[in-house]
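Box 3.1 A note on notation
Throughout this textbook, protein chains are presented in two layers. The first layer is the amino acid sequence; the second is a token string describing backbone geometry. Keep the layers aligned when reading.
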Amino acid sequence: MAKPVLLLHCPVEGEGILRRAAEAGAACPAPVLPLGLPCLRFASEALLLEAFRLGAAGVALLGCEHCLHGEREAWLGKLELVQTVLEGFGLGRDRVALLTGTQERFAEPMGALARFAEALAPSPLRWPGDAADPLDNRSLIAGAVRALLDATGREPGRVPVGPGQPFARVEVNAAGCTLCGACAFVCPTHAITRDERRNVIEFAHLRCVACGMCEPACPERVITLHRELFLERAALRPQVLAEDAMIACRRCGKEYINRRALETIEARVLGLAGLGDTFAEGRREILRMCPECRAVAAILEMQKGWQP
């Protein structure tokens, strides 16, 4: 069975090693497909996972021992994330390998590449014949996760990631959420959205970049950010974080606010010193009216001598 291997290489030592090997008659073994990049730091987790979606048995990266661009640590974190995903689905961490060397010692990395390709087991994924669309990173990652779910039949669930990884899962204490929408307003990737028609707050996990802006933006402090990947089918579609029933205006019957928001407003207004008597008896109903009816009711009460 074919075991295609994608070889990503940099234009400095990576390309030089391949050129020197070819000149010496030691070109890449048959299943290895070389692909040049401006630098290996451009090998994103999305690109690597897309290679596996397309049927690669493994991905090797060939480059400099000491990257000239000095971003090796951040880039190694991407490789670690891909290895974690593959391990979660039972494919093993050893399907991704980083090979470094110099043109003068080209035989060492080329030998390691041959051993890497030979040791790989066939991949359970087969390219379905479609093109990834759209080509943004998060869509590519979602497509790869979907393919891994289908091919392996596994759902690894919650997989912890490092603090520097741009992935997180948002959890909301729904009982304390007033659906104010502050979290959705500050979310830069629209991972959190508010559907006013359905009166729900939803979360699209694979859009989240773990910026953390939602936590301090929440006035009720009911949001918690978990640094983890949620590798289940549920992560491929928006999940409801909080929902609530709508309350109808006591005067006109039009729905205008959700229940928990109204209860929070009433508790805070009536808890203010001096306002308890202001909204005593029948005037408390003013708080349970839509803005239009509330204005009319307040004017009618003031004509009776009420001073809000």
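The mean pLDDT is 90. The longest strand covers residues 58-64.
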